[in-house]
Design goal:
- Two copies of one chain form a homodimer.
- Chain A is an alpha/beta fold.
- Chain A is built from ten helices and 13 strands.
- Chain A is globular, with a radius of gyration of 18 Å.
- Chain A is 36% helix and 23% strand.
- In chain A, the strands form two sheets. In chain A, strands 5-4-1-8-9-10-11-12-13 form a nine-stranded mixed beta sheet, sandwiched between helices.
């Protein structure tokens, strides 16, 4: 792994303090947010440059964890007020949840500003924020990155559809869940939804399916699918999709190789990092992972799927 | 493939005439039933000996189709009255359905009788019927088959729990869906459910996940998972699980090789046959498949999952 050149990787997204309730446990002050999960998941693979905003209540220990993982925080804005806070409760099966409270706080007026050292990065991930802000970030790049990844959610599909289409036309990879893909295209069949989405811009569509794994529709009709690793100890699913994106983009940035074959490996890396994420609250299980740790778990996917 | 010795394979289960309504189409008089789907799916791989019951209304064309596929019907009982009939409507996403009508008819007093030529078979599949009948079939075998597979459903878990446990103690492979596995063990986690089920008897548990594929927990902690083939033309999901079982058992009977590695291949064969099943009403797409056809589709699973 060490012989390869690592490209710079920027992530723009939420930084949050969550209050997570599961059927068997609960954590208040659980540090989360898409940009945090993404960064902690990509960190064992490559360096990450984070863009986000926090309030005065954001734990110093989380700053220290991000720094220890090698995450560049020069794009992390400190603002007056409280950090974005989300409170949610997972159902018995851990697959669905209810949002109990959302307080945008300093995230409400977030306007991402990329430090000069971020603007020439070759890999950019636009986590789930307003499409207009995602466009704004694209404009700030000194040149078109080699690969731009995007996440979004049902809210933006509903209330910012046109802006979302503008962003979609300018990205390479869209990584969303199955329901979002169907909603975005008003389809009931995923294969048809994938075709429509790829016509909107992104040449590669990655469908995140939670406990069922991931599915990828790429150029030339290429389709790849992987199951998720069956886990006995699912503690907290929060951030799994963002961790998936971190592993996915982290592998592509580390190898610098954008081919169909390497995108398949990137999906396994995404699945690998997501599998760690759900085994603890916050980024507990992602912290301190070595290259050897993650390579061993990657191998579990080989063992799981070989026939 | 032709160099291998094929063992005999018996299936016991329902033979039905369904009335299937999907969001875009409908078929009355759609021949179905677990034993029919199983047999038509196994037929391209190996010979099948069917045990079931029909009424006077069962279409002669379906008898001809089963015979043309090489299915041994000497265990198919002709009874006075009407064939088992089921009417159901699929929801928009094709994953869930409502039962509109169920008429057991001649199936209500079905008492499976194995012809002499079936009793020494090495492979036996007990499709979803009352556990007491499944036990009865086991008793009729001249000797313990090399491999016994079992399906069941939520109804028997509810109302015939003790009898079901008796059957479970005597089978090698249980093939059920995820919800049934959780219900059977009163668990919310599939890995824990699998451990409990394997303690009840079956050394191998196959979880059928519909559009998400299949998962297998085998001896020695071996875990295997495969996604399903993404399909654009899902016409009618009825019988997909039974077709899976037919492909799975058909491969094992054809090769005669019961190893962890070959069970993985059998799961891909099951997935292959299920993918055909859902592309048409009844067994339309399973009829007339050649070895070359199915081998090509098996290869699609290799292409889908390789990384």
């Amino acid at each position: 792994m060490s012989t390869q050149t690592t490209s710079k990787l920027v992530v723009v997204g939420s930084v949050a303090v969550d209050w997570v309730i599961t059927p068997t446990a609960e954590r208040q002050e659980s540090v989360g947010g898409a940009a945090v999960f993404f960064s902690m998941a990509a960190a064992p693979l490559t360096g990450v440059q984070l863009v986000g905003v926090i309030g005065h209540d954001f734990p110093g220990s989380a700053i220290a964890d991000l720094e220890a993982a090698g995450v560049d925080l020069s794009g992390l804005e400190r603002s007056d007020g409280l950090t974005f806070r989300w409170k949610g409760r997972y159902h018995e099966n851990m697959n669905s949840r209810d949002t109990l409270e959302t307080h945008l706080n300093v995230f409400e007026n977030f306007s991402p500003k990329l430090p000069a050292g971020y603007r020439d990065s070759d890999f950019l991930f636009l986590a789930n924020i307003q499409p207009s802000l995602q466009l704004d970030v694209l404009e700030q790049m000194a040149r078109r990155p080699r690969l731009v990844g995007l996440d979004t959610m049902n809210l933006w599909i509903d209330i910012a559809h046109d802006k979302l289409l503008e962003v979609l036309a300018r990205v390479d990879v869209l990584a969303i869940n199955q329901e979002e893909a169907l909603q975005l295209t008003a389809e009931t069949n995923l294969v048809r939804a994938a075709r429509k989405i790829r016509e909107l811009g992104p040449k590669t569509l990655v469908i995140k399916r939670g406990e069922y794994g991931a599915l990828c529709f790429g150029p030339g009709g290429d389709v790849f699918a992987t199951p998720a690793l069956p886990l006995e100890d699912v503690v907290d699913p929060t951030g799994a999709g963002d961790s998936f994106a971190g592993g996915f983009m982290g592998h592509l940035a580390r190898t610098g190789e954008i081919t169909g074959e390497n995108v398949r490996k990137a999906i396994i890396w995404g699945s690998t990092m997501a599998s760690y994420c759900v085994q603890g609250f916050s980024y507990d299980r992602l912290r301190g992972l070595s290259r050897e740790d993650v390579a061993r778990r990657y191998q579990q996917f080989v063992d799981l799927t070989s026939f």
